[in-house]
Amino acid sequence: MPKAKVYKNFINGEWVESGSEETFENRNPADKRDLIGLFQRSNQDDVNAAVEAAKNAFESWRLYPAPRRAEILFRVAEILLKKKEEFARDMTREMGKVLKEARGDVQEAIDMTYYMAGEGRRQFGQTTPSELPSKFMMSVRMPLGVCALITPWNFPMAIPSWKLMPALILGNTVVFKPATDTPLSAYNLVKACEEGGLPRGVLNFVTGTGSEVGTPLMTHKDVKLVSFTGSTAVGKAVAEATASSFKHTNLEMGGKNAILVMDDAKIDLAVEGAIWGGFGTTGQRCTAASRVIVHKKVIKEFTQKFVARARALKVGDGRDPKTEMGPSINEGQLETVMKYVEVGKKEDEARLLTGGRRLTKGEYAHGNFHEPTIFGDVHPEMRIAQEEIFGPVVAVIQTGSLEEGIKIINETAYGLSASIYTQDINRAFVAMRDVYTGIFYVNASTIGAEVHLPFGGTKQTGNGHREAGQAALDVFSEWKVLYIDYSGKLQKAQIDVE
Ligand code: UN1
């Protein structure tokens, strides 16, 4: 057997091993015999070195003209574009999502890199007339300093790019800790940044676990901002650990997104949306549609078609072009899926309509595969309709009206994404107004956000921030307001009113 490649940390422009002298394995979730590589199991000392490097680099990077930072980002985008296929294949191998989706993930990183590179010549502030004569005023953006980026495995390149590119273009420096399940895609992104000519220390990359790397990183005194995407439970721990030092935090967490199918909907279109939203990325998106709320007049037809389509989905290795749904990321995630299937089965009224089993035979023997699973007759308050599962499990819920449907959408702890299928523009507008989520779609599924509008959610999905779009600039900078008095005399705002 060929020896597995050992990947290193990237600190102060050098590829270095962890002081721990330990590594962890990165394996293919579709075939766990396939060892992709060994990554550094880093510790507090590695974190300290990375933060130190980022802190030192900040002094020159913050003064580096933003349009020149942009030139580097444009080069990084070109490199990502050139290597898109290779990076997508690496991603499918380590994460399991089907190749088409992995290409989309890399594309999202390319889009974000170009978009933020454009901000090199924008980052607009405001100028406005003063209430006093011979006084000028304006606002400008300031970088924060060292930013800690802690990213999930479900979008192994896109989500890091949502954080990294705005952080860099605004003049911050970064310590990046990727999820232990998908360090190769993160490594590929960092390599592209190195090749693009990012100065040493501006981006540092430290792999390892949440407790050994994440915790020391987010509590480090020289880290000014922690940007985290992951579960609500971990996000809460980040919020608590950073509160006493008043670090900025940007938290993107769970979802329990719903599609509402009205009685005037194009049913086949809604079925396709529910399949894509429920089983795309094996249900492992924060934007996944894990609830479908259907008007009672069409629920029979919808459910029949939805179940038939789910049953026909080809589950398998994402590298096979015939595969429509890949594996769960790891054993733990698969166990969560199976646990919720049992929870659903124990509900008195809910009915398992299809799926419900782990796949273990033949081509599935060495991977984390599970059938696409649908429960019918689900009540909105049941656990499978309230808790985020992050797997291929969808709950179908009946509604008698638009108002009730909207109420069901809103009555969960989360508020990331939702959608409505209807041909009635009035209903669409009522839903657009009354659904309380950060993202809402009309006649489309709950997934498909684009990089140039804000991404994020209400309630326990986030902490009030948005990523992507112009909103990302507010996360990764602070406002400074400048007043210049050229009158040559003391002028008192609010007092010299005559
Ligand atoms: C996520 O679900 O974690 O809108 C991110 C989408 C993608 C991003 C999803 N563009 O589904």
Describe the overall structure.
The structure is a single chain. The protein is an alpha/beta fold. The chain has two domains: 9-253 and 462-481, Aldehyde Dehydrogenase, Chain A, domain 1, CATH 3.40.605.10; 257-442, Aldehyde Dehydrogenase, Chain A, domain 2 (3-Layer(aba) Sandwich), CATH 3.40.309.10. It has 15 helices and 23 strands. It is globular and about 80 Å long. 2-aminohexanedioic acid binds next to loops.
Describe the secondary-structure layout.
Elements (H helix, E strand, L loop, with lengths): L5 E2 L1 E3 L2 E3 L6 E6 L2 E10 L3 H18 L4 H17 L1 H12 L3 H20 L16 E9 L2 E5 L7 H12 L3 E5 L5 H13 L7 E3 L4 H9 L4 E7 L2 H12 L4 E5 L4 E5 L5 H13 L9 E7 L3 H14 L18 H16 L4 E4 L3 E2 L9 E2 L2 E6 L4 H4 L6 E7 L2 H9 L3 E2 L1 E5 L3 H10 L4 E4 L15 E2 L11 H5 L1 E9 L13
Parallel strand pairs: 1-5, 7-8, 7-10, 8-9, 10-11, 12-13, 12-20, 13-18, 17-18, 20-21
Antiparallel strand pairs: 2-3, 4-5, 6-23, 14-17, 15-16, 19-22
The chain binds 2-aminohexanedioic acid (UN1).
Strand order of the largest sheet: 14-17-18-13-12-20-21
Structural class from helices and strands? alpha/beta
Rounded to the nearest angstrom, the radius of gyration is: 24 Å
Question: How large is the share of residues in beta strands?
Answer: 15-25%
CATH architecture of the largest domain: 3-Layer(aba) Sandwich
Helix content: 25-40%
Number of helices: 15
CATH class of the largest domain: Alpha Beta
What's the CATH topology name of the largest domain? Aldehyde Dehydrogenase, Chain A, domain 1
CATH superfamily of the largest domain: Aldehyde Dehydrogenase, Chain A, domain 1
Low-confidence parts, pLDDT < 50 over ≥5 residues? none
